Amino acid sequence: MTTKIVFLPGDGVGPEVIGAAEAVLAKVSEQEGFSYAAEHHAFGGAAIDSHGDPFPTETRAACLAADAVILGAVGGPKWAGGSVRPEQGLLAMRSELGTFANLRPATIMPGLEALSPLRPERVTGCDLLIVRELTGGLYFGDREEGSEAALDTCRYSRDEVERIARIAFDAARGRRGKLTSVDKANVLATSRLWRSVVDDMATDYPDVTLDHMLVDAAAMRLVSAPTDFDVILTENLFGDILSDQASAVAGSIGLAPSASLGSGKGGIFEPIHGSAPDIAGQGKANPVGTILSLAMALRHSLDQEAAAVRIETAVSKALADGHGTFDLGCSDSTKEMTAAICERL
Ligand code: ATP
Ligand code: MG
């Protein structure tokens, strides 16, 4: 059966960075000798404009049937005040595809150090993985909107914590054997449940060193000593915040990829950055986060490990040769950076 890849360009810089990933996929598939069928569907603000729905029925059907979904970004000022928002499409997609595990590596790519001037906030040797719970917590709790008062609720069940913790423990086992579970157990009931479930599971992983850290302390530590971390396990909201922070420590938000996985083989792969309306349409966006997300799709959902490694190596080489977009202090356009990576595949 043909591998089916669904591209959802979305909004802002989304179409620009998705174009870059498609160029890389076209070349790498030829080199590695595999074929695929690509589809493009409306999603996010663009889909509100065309279908009145950020996650139209036909997009939903295509995503459910796909081996991998590669997403650009959604959102922007145009839809921010509306009654239907692009981000609702994103939450609905994660929920319907059951992608409860969001993996966000923050690793200084070999080659990035060579870029000059090296920004001081980049930390040499930073190599961590954030495992963020993606379908529970505050993002999916009951809500009441109001102009005088509003309510968001946070809920987690033992099962939800267990399945994400298992992914984090397994990931730590395959890396440096260190797991930091991040919560706010001194204040939140959900965090105290989280902590006790993770502690219960630790007995299955005697080879993994587990510690717990409050999210405020973790935020500080991520800046002051990011190399202390190996795998960070955390809930939905804390993971959203900490992974943006970690991406800056590892170079730039434009470089960071993510994979959202469920119990099946498929997944959603997207850069961690948003639609970047401030630079959209200018050909300036860094395509690397999306290109590395494609590499994660090839590895996790498409059984093409060699192609994934080929892409990661080409990105490192391009950076080492001085290629980079403006966010890295360089001057390549999105297309030039993409071409530099394609040449090195
Ligand atoms: P979201 O809520 O969707 O996560 P956000 O509010 O976190 O979005 P982003 O869209 O990620 O915001 O943008 C944050 C900053 O990072 C902006 O200044 C943007 O220009 C910059 N940025 C985001 N993506 C890229 C990229 N691919 N290349 C260069 N700069 C980027
Ligand atoms: Mg963000």
UniProtKB/TrEMBL annotation:
Q: How is the cofactor bound?
A: Binds 1 Mg(2+) or Mn(2+) ion per subunit.
GO MF term list: 3-isopropylmalate dehydrogenase activity; magnesium ion binding; NAD binding
Q: Where is the signal peptide?
A: none
Question: Where does it primarily localize?
Answer: cytoplasm
Family matches, as InterPro entries: IsoCit/isopropylmalate_DH_CS (IPR019818), IsoPropMal-DH-like_dom (IPR024084), Isopropylmalate_DH (IPR004429)
Q: Which residues bind Mg(2+)?
A: 216, 240, 244
Query: What is the reaction catalyzed?
Result: (2R,3S)-3-isopropylmalate + NAD(+) = 4-methyl-2-oxopentanoate + CO2 + NADH
User: Could you tell me which pathway this protein works in?
Assistant: Amino-acid biosynthesis; L-leucine biosynthesis; L-leucine from 3-methyl-2-oxobutanoate: step 3/4
Q: What Pfam families does the database record attribute to this sequence? A: Iso_dh
Where NAD(+) binds, per the record, is at 274-286
Question: Is the keyword Secreted assigned to this protein?
Answer: no
Q: Which cofactor does it need?
A: Mn(2+); Mg(2+)
Q: Which family does it belong to?
A: Belongs to the isocitrate and isopropylmalate dehydrogenases family. LeuB type 1 subfamily.
Subunit organization: Homodimer.
Report what the protein is called.
Answer: 3-isopropylmalate dehydrogenase
The species is Alteriqipengyuania halimionae
